[in-house]
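User: Design a sequence. Structure:
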């Protein structure tokens, strides 16, 4: 039940977040184009991730799925919250992140140790949350992970 509630909150907040807070340009690339890139590339992995989960690219929110790939994070609600903890540890600061961390802590107190573990993982990595991943779509995933110590 709480997973459904959090998913509904996310869906309700997504459009205003895209419109008023995300200033980046949409990537204007299709899943099919991503899947044509080299197999080791970030773009190919993004295309596979989208296909595997039957997702479409979300305009101005493309980086979110890239973070899933780089950090090897799942897509369950607790996984999503854990990823925000990871990003907090990596130095990202945003109202949206704080809202997810706060609500996740309240709704999933039993997962708090796991969330703290993700925070620590994010602290160990070099800051990468701010990168322009669109420009890195042809770079191998392993190279990005190694360069930024993403475990």
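Assistant: Done.
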């Amino acid at each position: 039940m709480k997973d459904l509630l959090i998913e509904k909150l996310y869906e309700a907040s997504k459009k205003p977040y895209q419109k008023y807070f995300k200033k980046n340009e949409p990537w204007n690339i299709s899943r099919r184009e991503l899947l044509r890139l080299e197999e080791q590339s970030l773009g190919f992995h993004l295309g596979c991730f989208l296909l595997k989960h039957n997702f479409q690219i979300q305009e101005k929110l493309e980086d979110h799925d890239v973070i899933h790939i780089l950090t090897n994070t799942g897509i369950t609600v607790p996984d999503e919250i854990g990823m925000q903890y990871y990003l907090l540890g990596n130095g990202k600061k945003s109202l949206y992140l704080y809202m997810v961390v706060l609500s996740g802590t309240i709704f999933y107190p039993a997962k708090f140790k796991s969330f703290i573990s993700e925070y620590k993982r994010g602290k160990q990595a070099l800051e990468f949350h701010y990168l322009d991943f669109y420009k890195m779509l042809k770079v191998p995933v392993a190279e990005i992970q190694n360069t930024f110590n993403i475990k």
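The radius of gyration is 15 Å. The chain has one domain: 2-147.
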